Amino acid sequence: MASSSRQSCFQCEDASSAEFRNGWRLRSGEFAQLCQRCASVFEEGRFCETFHSNDDGWRDCESCGKLVHCGCIVSFHAYLLMDFGGVICMECSKLNFMLVRGD
Ligand SMILES: [Zn+2]
Ligand SMILES: [Zn+2]
Ligand SMILES: [Zn+2]
Questions:
Q1: Are 57 and 67 in contact (CB under 8 A)?
Q2: Can you give the residue ranges of every domain in the chain?
Q3: Which ligand number lies closest to the CA of residue 33?
Q4: pLDDT tens for residues 58-90?
């Protein structure tokens, strides 16, 4: 077995990155370790559109029409399910909550 101290990127398996950063939380409770390139894509919120664009599960936000990758652990915190079906992205849900609160 190779030494477990040798990290590789969760997404691209690149082990040459000088630094690894936390991505999303895995079912194990640990964070996915990402190389600098993949981490910056993740931190900009473009991970799914960059790496999962051919996958199933893309749906439009009911409010702004932005595509969100439903059922994907990477996008788990990026959208909410609506009571009547459909999804809403986090930015729109924040706006809606502000409207509800600020009567
Ligand atoms: Zn990577
Ligand atoms: Zn995804
Ligand atoms: Zn939206």
A1: no
A2: 1-44, 55-103
A3: 1
A4: 999 999 999 999 999 999 889 999 888 899 999
- Gap from CA of 39 to ligand 3 centroid (Å): 23
Q: Which of 63, 57, 54, 59 is nearest to 99 (CA)?
A: 63
Closest ligand (CA of 90): 3
How many CB atoms sit inside 10 A of residue 2's CB? 7
Per the structure block, which two tokens stand in for 90? 């986090």
The neighbour count for residue 39, using CB atoms within 10 Å, is 22
Give the position of tokens 């994907």: 72
Would you say residue 6 has pLDDT above 90?
no
Q: Which of 99, 91, 29, 98 is nearest to 64 (CA)?
A: 91
The mean predicted confidence, pLDDT, of the chain is 89
pTM for this entry: 0.79
